[in-house]
Design brief:
Blueprint (H helix, E strand, L loop, with lengths): L6 H16 L4 H11 L8 H9 L9 E5 L5 H10 L2 E6 L2 H13 L6 E5 L11 E7 L8 H10 L1 E14 L6 H10 L6 H10 L2 E8 L1 H14 L7 H19 L3 E10 L3
Parallel strand pairs: 1-2, 1-4, 2-3, 4-5
Antiparallel strand pairs: 5-7, 6-7
Length: 267
């Protein structure tokens, strides 16, 4: 599938992808993420958490799924394996997509999953999906109304949106948390704020859960597992420090984590 975009936007897209692949998603950084999150995953909780979130929907073989910010393809591969879904993953990182293609071929699932370098804000699907899925990706996107309009465009009438994302507690925020958001260039919403955005975009909100307590448990489990992970001592110390700070922000109620399920109206 080819994404047809204006030349100027294509240049912006390529520049954004190059920045990701030279920074947060170099092959070495991907290796470190995977050492913590588990094979094929770059999101909190890895495969176990993915299965828990999948359980919020009723699945049937052959369902068409768009996986936004698919990363290494862990969720897409699981959906194909567990439910017989047909999954199309999009991401801005070419490094991630190249790895996803290799892994789907190795798993014998190239017939069930496909990959595309694309920006969800400009994405024009060839056909609508039964489900749009995403894990901890929307925090990177500042234009939330445009994002939700794009997600709506990608769903068939009656289709489901299933995602998790980092949240924030109510303002005012501490200087440390404000700096964290600024440095990462995140755009975080409160749980209520996300619900309002979803409803304004025309979604029926079915599930909107603050799962920060579970997030802390995931982080603590991952922190403990770093001792046996395939990491150098320097890498282990740096990652452990980052995870400990996330735990502290979550326990303070500033950094939160939510899971959402919403539906596009049937007609």
């Amino acid at each position: 599938m080819l994404l047809r975009v204006p030349w100027a936007h294509k240049m912006e897209l390529d520049a954004a992808a190059a920045a990701l692949d030279a920074g947060q998603y170099t092959l070495d950084e991907i290796r470190k993420y995977e050492a913590v999150y588990g094979q094929n995953f770059v999101s909190p909780g890895g495969a176990g958490t993915a299965r828990q979130i999948f359980s919020l929907l009723q699945w049937a073989p052959g369902m068409q799924v768009l996986d936004v910010g698919c990363g290494l393809g862990g969720a897409a591969l699981l959906l194909a394996q567990l439910y017989g879904a047909k999954v199309h993953g999009i991401d801005l990182s070419r490094n991630m997509l190249a790895q996803a293609a290799v892994r789907s071929a190795q798993a014998g699932l190239a017939h069930a999953v496909s990959w595309e370098h694309a920006d969800i804000l400009e994405y024009q699907p060839q056909q609508p999906s039964d489900v749009v899925h995403s894990r901890d990706v929307f925090l990177h996107i500042h234009r939330k109304p445009q994002l939700l309009a794009a997600l709506m465009r990608c769903l068939r009438p009656g289709g489901s949106l299933l995602f998790s994302d980092y949240l924030c507690g109510p303002a005012p925020h501490s200087a440390e948390f404000t700096d964290y958001i600024r440095i990462r260039n995140y755009h975080l919403c409160t749980l209520a704020g996300y619900c309002a955005l979803l409803q304004s975009a025309g979604f029926e909100v079915l599930v909107a859960e603050d799962r920060t307590a579970a997030f802390v448990e995931i982080l603590e489990r991952e922190l403990g597992g770093m001792q046996s992970a395939a990491l150098s001592e320097t890498e282990r110390r740096a990652l452990a420090h980052s995870w400990q700070r996330k735990i502290e922000r979550a326990q303070a109620g500033e950094q939160r984590w939510g899971v959402f399920c919403a539906r596009r109206a049937p007609g």
